[in-house]
Specification:
It comes from Elizabethkingia bruuniana. This is Four helix bundle protein. It holds the Pfam family 23S_rRNA_IVP. By secondary structure, this protein is mainly alpha-helical. The protein has one domain (about 10-25, about 35-115): 23S rRNA-intervening sequence (de novo design (two linked rop proteins), Up-down Bundle), CATH 1.20.1440.60. The chain is built from four helices and no strands. The protein has helices at about 10-25, 40-55, 60-90, 100-115. Helix 2 (about 40-55) runs antiparallel to helix 3 (about 60-90). The longest helix is centred in the middle third of the chain and has 27 residues, at about 60-90. The radius of gyration is 14 Å and the shape is elongated.
């Protein structure tokens, strides 16, 4: 925010911010009984994506960068699995997860492409 660094210009970073915001929108709809389980996990995983992209971008070596990008991609898989649980528990209708699902897909693809480059 205060440091104007390159990661803020990356499409994957911008997509991850949208993913984070969409995740937080879903968190508001989940029951309080999930505060210390599903809500906590979804919050940590969605934050992890953004933080690992920014931290990875600050690394000098490609090996180091990719390690953080792989962690971020793993966190996207966690978010996707949280969505699966949310639907199976009937907390939210599948169509209410469409926006989040689109950001899951786009951010995963962008990260995968970044890892290939």
């Amino acid at each position: 925010m205060f440091l104007k660094l390159n990661h803020q210009n990356l499409e994957v970073y911008k997509s991850a911010k949208k993913l984070l915001n969409a995740s937080y929108d879903i968190l508001e709809k989940l029951p309080d009984s999930e505060n210390f389980n599903l809500k906590s996990q979804l919050k940590r995983a969605s934050t992890s994506v953004l933080l690992n992209i920014s931290e990875g971008s600050s690394r000098k070596s490609k090996t180091e960068r990719n390690r953080f990008y792989k962690i971020a991609r793993g966190s996207i898989v966690e978010i996707d699995t949280c969505c699966e649980v949310i639907i199976e528990r009937n907390y939210i209708k599948p169509e209410e997860l469409t926006e989040l699902g689109n950001y899951i897909i786009s951010t995963f693809i962008l990260l995968s492409n970044l890892l290939k480059s």
